[in-house]
Fold each of these.
Amino acid sequence: MAKTIYLGNPNLKRQNVEIDYTQEQIEEFIKCRDNPSYFIKNYIHIVNLDEGLIKFDLYPFQEELVKTLYTTRFTIVKCPRQSGKSQTSLAFMLHYVLFNDQRQVAILANKSATSRELLGRLQMAYERLPYFLQQGVMEWNKGSIVLENGSRIMAGSTSSSSIRGYSFNLIFLDEFAFVQQGMAEDFFRSVYPTISSGKDSKVIIVSTPNGMNHFYKMWSDAVDGRNTYKPFEINWWDVPGRDSAWKEETINNTSEEQFKQEFECEFLGSAGTLISPAKLHALVIKDPLHTKDNLKVYEETIENHAYFIAVDVAEGRGQDYSSMSVIDITNLPFTQVATYKSNEISPLLFPNYIMQVAMAYNDATCIVESNGPGAEVANILHYDLEYDNTINESGVYNKLGRKMTSRIKGIGCSNLKDLLEHDKLVVNDMATISELSMFVTKGKSWAAEGGGHDDMVMGLVMFSWVATQPEFKELTDMELRLKLYANKIHEIEEDLTPFGFIDSGDDSDDYVVEGGEVWQVSHESMRF
């Protein structure tokens, strides 16, 4: 017996163990290989809160989910809490590595501890399989298992670096809506190329909604056919034992808002948001035309259009984000046409980037929130780079930024609510909409819920405050802008191409200065 078990664990078969299969075992092996649901219902064990260790008797919706995972490459699952979606996915993954050679699987969650706990559940189910269904074990620890058929399962966090350098046939993303916004985007930029390179590789995304974030975007795109993920929705009433009486009891013990998010799977975000839930639902996330160096462009520059840039500044140390929203203010509704967001750019380098974007958008007017490092950015932008088209403390141009005070924030939040809810401002950016879904009342003010970020929102708050100021009318006055533009061109022409006569002081020929060159002019040629 000792020669057949792995490291003293009697529940695990080591590699290179020969088994004399009976005819019945051969038939069972084939049934299990060809039918994942049959394998799960007859051989997978789970821990039930009430009954302890039991066979996994799949509910109808779970059996349908297994079929979907088996036949589909890319699956995204929106589901309520405690619906068994993770356990169902783990059971399918166990079937996947047992009956396919050389398969690499990653179990990923927002925290490494969570992914390891999921792997632990899969290992528990594996240990209860009969030897004739097991593959010999080559490696078995809290972070990974390796089987003698060359298949491997590893656990990690959903970050861009956790599985960099690996190639996977299947990636499972658990509770993906709870991964930080920037991390979710970085993860897919880093990992998706390794998935798309295979013809039968799979991605399984399961989550309960958590506001309007990257999961919301992927789910909406799947439902509308804008990506190739197959949407699979689980409703709270699909779980046996959950009826109207259960719903009423759950709401009484928690809250209606919590029930809507965690069991009815609404993408509500937080309760008490600045923007009404109905309006948040109506906001449409737009894919950028192109993205480079954290700048997302949704609309290219249009000649003679007026643009405004709201800037929020952070330390650039990997925590809060420095951000920009570029807004077309030519006509109502105002439109967010480009965004920038980075938590790594230094305040010393940020002004150069702001000016590049501003100049690309017709010398856009900028306002820099000058609290903390923002004051340094405003100074560099104005004094060192000599970018004049900025707003200062008193609301006039060509000076420094504007400090965010409680009064300005209050006015800005109020006007932002009005602009969005009355369709006077179009927001296209996913990160901005995600932050809006978590921007909630905090005492007498507004801020991101919990440990979230509101850097993009605060830029819009500053813009919304500016939109209430008298000077803003000048920015949106087309006739005035064209006059100012014509005057500016005239000044430039005068500076670059001076024209005039040089009188020689006698009757001899005079000289004309034009375009930096001197031309002799005969008096005879000037007589009429």
Amino acid sequence: MKKKEFHWILVYAFVLVLLTTMPYFLGYMVENEEWRFTGFIIGVEDGNSYIAKMLLGSAGSWLFKSPYSSMEQNGVIAFLPYILLGKLASGPGIHEQLVVLYHLFRIFVTPLAIYATYQFISLFIKEVPWRRLATILSTAGGGLGWLFVIVGKGEWHGSLPMDWISPEWFGFLAIFGTPHLILARALLLLGLTLYLTSPIKKERAWLAGGSFILLGLVHPLGMATAIAVVSVHQCAIGITAYSRKSSLIWKKWLKLGLKAILTPLPLIVYYFIRFSTDPYLILWTKQNRIFSPNPIHIFIAYGLVLIPAILSVKRILDFRRWTGLAILAWLLAFPIFAYSPHNLQRRLPDGIWVVWTILAILGLDLISKRWLKKPQLLGTIFVALCLPTSFLLLISAIRYSVLRSSPIFRKGEEVEVFEWLRVEAAPKSIVLSSFATGNALPAWAPVIVVLGHGPETADHISVEADVSAFYGGRMNDQEMIEFIQDYRISYIFWGPLERVPDGIDLASSPLFELRFEIGDFQLYEVQ
């Protein structure tokens, strides 16, 4: 990579970071005593859970134990970046510290992801202007989702378009709001770049495996994607080598592939054992269901790049026969990844948009050089057609960042109760609340909630029914005592979201003592 290319990466990363940080900055600008900004505009529920994981680290944890379930947990190596970042925060204003650290994490890993993307693209695209367009398309581009949303077909066939909801199928959403997925994308592409260039320097195969280990610590499912991509590449090389009677080539690549795959094997075994034997992790995995949409959404997502991508297939084989097989095999395996019998099937095709981008840009280059006098003009127009989804997401985020409404903002009085719990309650005290309150509470106080996050709350449906029955006044005193003992509840949160018509009257029950009250919010302690 030349110095000018590296400088361009830094400038582009700065622009992208500036644009994606603006809505969060505005959120804090309009915050007041009545409404407190959560620090998130998209994916607020998951955002609260990431801050809660950082708070775990601040409280001394090294292993992940979800604060969204009262079930006993043994802990697991997961969400490591958030737990480690949490150790940098302490004292008053810890929520604000954690949110700032979260966004600094996002800001600093964005240039790394853009660098890794550019390096991977450079394996297949020679000319610098086309590399730049491919990088912009990979990190800020989207599909035709913007068109369907504009014409009122946003929920077509049971799902929003993928460029609106999936950071795995595209790239901009991760840069906008999910730093561990940005870092995971960077490690995935860096590892694959090392692996694909390992025939030049054999030690790069080991380095690729090391990159996959780091990927597994950041995002275990991303490590599975990396190994799957290397595996399908090995299969493609084996088939091609057999048809061409090139056994030496196949053996050479096989050795390199085994090094890249076997290096992270101990971590793979660790995760397999933990997630197949630990009772809580089994329930968490079972509840964590993120399925791919109707296949027609593939055409909505990638229809714009389909034709130029098809045109470039022969060219990429001619240019980089054995290396080029990697992205072609990856693309052919995409439907298998996306619709595999796995409860997180939508997450498995991570990085596939980069493959589509490379093939599309190569196809546009081919078309331009044959019929146009200014080769990059068509590419620039094409990239511009892929940017509206990201533009609309930014505009929507800016709009909602100044509205001061839940769940992006929380009532200031509600946060006062959260902060009272942070100071006065014993760490890991178990608090009962509604789902919405429970989602935000562990981001402000190092407590455990009975209910608050779909996948992480063990037996979520059963727990929600019990909580509804309690607040709805459908339990007698003995049933309430058993409920409280079963969930080991210490505090009861009582606010507008917990009050229901003809529901329980906590103030009149001898089982509970009022400990803190402000405005419409009360906190009761179990006697």
Amino acid sequence: MKNHVIKYISVITLIILFTGCDKSFLDLKPQGVTTELTYYSNFNAVDETVTAAYSTLNSYLIFDVYKTIYLGSVASDDAEAGGENNGDQPTAHAIDRMVQAASDNSDPVSQDFWEYNYKGIRLVNTVIPLLQKMSNDTSVLVNQRIAECKFLRAYYYFSLAQVFGGVPLILIVPDPTTNYKRNTLKEIYTQIEQDLTDAIPNLLERSMLDPTQIGRATKGAARSLLSKAYLYESSYAENYPGDSRFAGMTNHYADALKYAQDVINSGEYKLVGSDASRYPWMAPSGKTVGGFRWVFSVSGNNSPESVFDIENVEDVLGYIATRGSYLTVYSTIRFFADPTGASVSFGWSFNCPTPYLISSFANNDSRETGINAAPTGNETLDPRFATTVGRQGDSVYAKVGATTAWRPMVFSNLPTGTIGRKFECSPAEYWSKYKNQGEGPMDVRLIRYADVVLFAAEAAFKTGDNTNALNYVNMVRQRARASGNTGYPQDLTSVSFMDIVHERRLELALEGHRFFDLVRWNFASKFITGTTLASYPGFTVTFQAGKNEFFPISTTDMQLSHGSLVQNPGY
């Protein structure tokens, strides 16, 4: 879908109104002017708006940087903000310290995240009724597009609910004169689950997509998101009894398990590298790596592990017009050493792994009680570590003059002395040809198969099916083990809930899941409070229960609502 679907499309609607006169000769139908009626006169025109609804996923910084780095990782115990210094991206540092305020619009993460998700929802709400007018029993493609739109609406609302809690539920083209109030979180989840249930029958399996259409929502993507929604609702219901923000949430662990198993049993996906295959990495370096490393590469885009990706391409179109990602430049180390030892400027060094994450890889983070595996004492034994964390002695593939080679990383300005490594690109893939830094060609993996397998493990455990829970956790550990030559991580012989918590942390580190997982388990106070930050010596993070589970709605959006929106507690 990179060249056929993910394009930035602006649909301009001109509505000409004649008022104040009843003369029939003045009641003219506009000619030669594009109106909403004339524009949406055929399927192709409507389909362009479906494309626009997809393209919102690729909007500037929203899902690649704000959700993956700031909200999902930096807010957790696994990463510090990093960057050039403490003044670089101040909202990221405020999120890091759990001191973000509703009025903090100097770098409006909350404002942009709110508004771009609602932009996607508006486009979907525009196109669904238009498609429904074209739909009949034989219009397979039209029904498929309706289903894709319902998937997208569910994804946008799920993202808003993760970040803000209950939000306005709007299922029509919004009336600009209406000030919408917030719906309950239960109402949002009910709609998400309904949209996905409606969508699944009319979506294609991934293997049925034409190669030019890869990136569209599939049955696997919808089932996976539905499993995740049921898992979140069940977690909130279990872990926040009596909390009015989660009122009405119910136990759906059995449903979460069913839909995750539908994906597992479909045969459409696999844990890449489970057979110990080797894959080329950092072309043209000649280096080969195990499956876990390769999944996070440009050549690993749309691999058999990708359930739903944001499709990116380095199109060299420049700022705003590009369809690439900022994830690579934001998360790559800021300096490497040239052959003379001098530091060369490179990436921007956000998303710096913490000592807590490193300890977890060694199975010795003392807060992770009940881990059913003997501490290794050596984090590097888990092959996922080298993919996730870079530190002193590691190298990056970079170009100096005409020569590209592995060059030492320089950590002099990094607060934790570490850098995340999941989103690196080679000079040939990115650094030597971009026109602007937001042209990273690596897809953003919104849902990958390992995540879904761990949904199944958690839901199975919660429904008393420890046999399947153990099997699913070991599937993920086996692939990790096959990606290296260390013999770790070993299979577990029994499974606890904390084993599943631990496995999600290691497998999905720095991918934007950790904070939201901690919140739904009601573990955020346990893991985040007391965290010390290398960026702020002497400062200890405090997670305020009843407040920090959700982020503030921006002051701008509160003001635009003319008092109809109620701010999240504590802001």
Amino acid sequence: MACVTYGGRVAEDIIKSAQERLKRDQEAWSENYRKARDDLHFLSDDPYAQWDESDYQSRTSTGRPALTIDQLGQFVHQVANDIRQNTPSINVIPGGKDSDIETAEIFQGLIRNIEYASNADDAYDTAALNAVKCGIGFLRVDHDYSDDESFNQDLFIRRVVNPLGCWIDSNSVECDGKDARHATIIDKISIDEFKRKYPGKDPICFESPDERDDRKSGKDVITIAEHFVLEEEEIEIGMDDAGNVFEYQKGMPISNTRKIRKSKVKHFKLSGQDVLEETWFPGKYIPIVPVYGEEHWKDGRRSLFSLIRKSKAAQRMFNYWVSLETELLMKTPKAPVMAAEGQIEDFADDWQNPDKAMVLRYKQQDAQGNPAPAPQRLDPPTVPTGIVNAARETVDYIKATMGMYNAAIGQRSNETSGVAINQRKQEGDVATYHFGDNLVRSITHLGRILVCAIPEIYDTPRVIRIIGLEDESKEIGVNGEAVEGQEREFDLRQGKYDVKVVTGASYTTKRQEAAQFFSDVVTRQPELMQVMGDLLFKNMDFAGAQAMSERMKKVIDPKFLEEDKAQDPEKMQLEAKIQEGQMLLQAMQQEMAQLQQQLQDKQADLQLKAQEGMADAEEASAKIEIQKIELQLKQQEMAAENQIRMMEIQLKARELDLKEQEIKAGILQAQQAMHNELATANNAGMSPRSQGEETNDD
């Protein structure tokens, strides 16, 4: 390889760095791209795309049907076409110093003109369709000379028809790719085309996963790469006493300086051996914008899902059950015939092709000459109801895996009212809303790229074309240039602007929306045709609409037309009154601002005083609380002492009761003993003592 230098670097180093970045990106994205490629194949018209290839070959090799009744295409088109009906619109708003609303409208009109000149709707629709079908699509911004005889350049929005040929920085985590630091687009061109575009360059393939297969198959194509990389340089900026910030150069009067890192985008076209082209892309963003489908993160790795990814198994089931049902039905007219040996051999041709024979003949005897019953066709095989039900259930499985049901795709369901149908349809739209929302985010970043690039591309005094809100085209001078009747100058190189994307109904112009509104009003109240019929036709787009508008003015009551004309002479007076009112309003606002400041000062003083008073109140409150607590403690101590005294009294009373009970028990025992003794003496006829004495004498 020749040591050709580009921007101070050797071509070999540039190509090697680009190949290393591409290799890392391919390793990170390989699983997503493999599944995306499988999704695209599944939706293709290949005969076994929606079959397992071995099952398909097994059935077809034995003459059994292997049908493909695609159910997924209608859902894909439903979601993609819903997105088309809600065309995003890029709005530009002022975002900083030196920016204003009128210049923002110039930016917005210029972007609308870029969209028209680029046929950007095709780019948006293709990216959205790819995101729905395989989980990822791309948009790109490009720039080129306005024509062959001009040094002025214009920006363009290009569509990317092969999303699997784009590889964005694998370290990017944003949903619109705005944090990407590099990107690569792999393109295949014929060798003849390569030699025509790049004479003197050797047709050597840039490394890619498919190039080896191409060379082995003998294809007369090579791969080249477009490589974008974000390069940074350190610069010093300064600020003057007025607060203006600019890139500092030695000797400038400044009040402060600091160093920053400024990003620039380098654009290469590379073969495997040469740097074919080298340019700078305006702005600070990689001009390759991804449009993701359903996004899922796990362990720091991004997974992308298409609309059909989780429905493919159900589609294969449906194809299998339908094929099996068809196979059984095909056997119905070919049910076998049971006949005795020797009955139909002489008429074999007729029985083998009964459709060709008007009369089927047979012998009444078998091969041994014995009488035999007439040949009988056996009952044909029946299709089990389980197979039919399974086929129906798989359709429900497909809808469930997508979250889209009958009303969402325009089929009749159990809803009876229009409101219920619309609500069910909205639920289906919500289930797939993320596809359209991701497109809006990507178009927002695309608008950001355009706003960032416009000051560098449209950086000279020139006349540009812009498109207004009602599709009206007009020319305007910028950067010091002016056209006839232009009231002020517009410098696209000054100020900062932000982007906001709005989605809405598919009205291509505000005039169409107005025409629809007037039509609805006149339909409900036809008598208003005599009042605003001219406005209705004025906003129509068909041939002769404007002539019809002028004709309607002749039949409309003149007072409705003269009212507008009567206001024209008073325009200047009204404008003067408006200006006086604005000046008065500004004076009132200043006076209110002063009063507001005085009020805030008084409130601050009151707040300080309130805080001081609050501190005294808090101290007094704390003392009261302490006194309350001390009183409660004293009350609790007195209650405890009283309770203890009551318990002592109860204890003494209990002891007295026990002693009294013991005395009473002793008295009772003594009385009982004496009673027993007296009873014994009475029984013996003597007293206990005399009895004792007699005993002793003995």
